[in-house]
Amino acid sequence: MQVIRSIPQMLAVQYTPAAQVGFVPTMGYLHDGHLSLVDAARRDCDVVVVSIFVNPAQFGPSEDLQSYPRDMDRDLSLLQKHHVDYAFLPDAEDMYPEGYATWVEVSGLSDLLCGASRPNHFKGVCTVVLKLINIVHPHCMYMGEKDFQQYFILRKMAEDLNLNLRVLSCPIIREEDGLAKSSRNSYLDSQQRQQASCLYQALRNSRQMVKAGECDAAKIIAAAEAILISNNAKVDYIQIVNSTNLMPVDSIDENSRMLIAAWIGKPRLIDNMLLKA
Ligand code: AMP
After folding, report:
1. Measuring from each residue's beta carbon to the nearest atom of ligand 1, which residues come in under 6 Å?
2. Average pLDDT, the chain
């Protein structure tokens, strides 16, 4: 595995002609969720590139940029074990030099759901991912369904900007009790860690209600909210949307997906599930 820290060096990489290049953008502190994307890229592509970059532009002023967990040595050894060809680790100063002024925004979609409580978050995500795509030149980019809105927005960006790129999604990887794996789970103390599986419980309960014949989105959301509140979670949002356009729905069909964001103490967790699978 080649470890590349400089943008000009990554730009200069000459892939074998006709090689399919798979790309996995991450913020590091890798877990099995990230590694499932790496494995999917390894399975499908000739060359696998993984970036690790904690992107300052997607953190709000009162968010956890400084404390975001980092362990580069461990990350690099995991990537090596998963047969990655290139680990790209750019510096923030090189990605956003003084005078940096260009931003990418997918309007509308970026204000919904997580965008409502994290203004500018998706602008930061789209900007960094487009920059990384321009540096890495992949044919396929692998994203986790865990961040469903992010995947949806980046797919839209790729389509709108005619990027010659397939944006692929991979299933959510979970802990044994259902909690979606996340670098931010490391913030949870042992009591919060126990409570944190309530997001998954609320999603599972919603899916069961649908299986039992409930179609009314408002009733399903109310039941999910009760589960979160009884576990001391502070709800940011619980919404049921159409997976094909992210618009809220009143009545459940095959495309209905519940998305949840909630604080368990200080850490804010997100999760989602298709309700009629
Ligand atoms: P992050 O490092 O949090 O920016 O995540 C990098 C990529 O890994 C994103 O595409 C995430 O959606 C994906 N990812 C994070 N957690 C999981 C998970 N539990 N299962 C599947 N993919 C995940």
Report:
1. 26-27, 33-34, 36-37, 143-144, 146-147, 170, 172-173, 180-183
2. 98
Residue with tokens 């502070």: 234
Instruction: For residues 58 and 193, state if they share a domain.
Output: no
Query: What pLDDT was estimated at residue 277?
Result: 76
Residue 191 has pLDDT above 90, yes or no: yes
Instruction: For residue range 97-126, list pLDDT tens digits in order.
Output: 999 999 999 999 999 999 999 999 999 999
> Among 136, 170, 204, which residue terminates a domain?
170
Q: Nearest 10 degrees: CA dihedral of 265, 237, 277, 32? A: -40
pTM: 0.98
Burial 67-92 (b: 16+ CB within 10 A, else e): ebeeeeeebbebbeebebbbbbbbee
Of ligand 1's listed atoms, the one at least distance from the Cα of 142 is 10
Task: Summarize the confidence of residues 37-51 as an average pLDDT.
Answer: 98
Task: Provide the residue type at 62 as one letter.
Answer: S
Residue with tokens 């993984």: 50
Counted domains in the chain: 2
Span 23-32, pLDDT tens digits: 999 999 999 9
Which atom of ligand 1 is closest in space to residue 143's alpha carbon?
10
228 burial class (0-12, 13-18, 19+ CB within 10 angstroms)? Answer: buried
For 181, phi then psi, to 5°, come to -65, 140
The parent domain of residue 29 ranges over 2-170
How large a percentage of the chain has pLDDT more than 70?
100
Residues 101 and 212 in one domain: no
Nearest CA owner, ligand 1 atom 17:
33
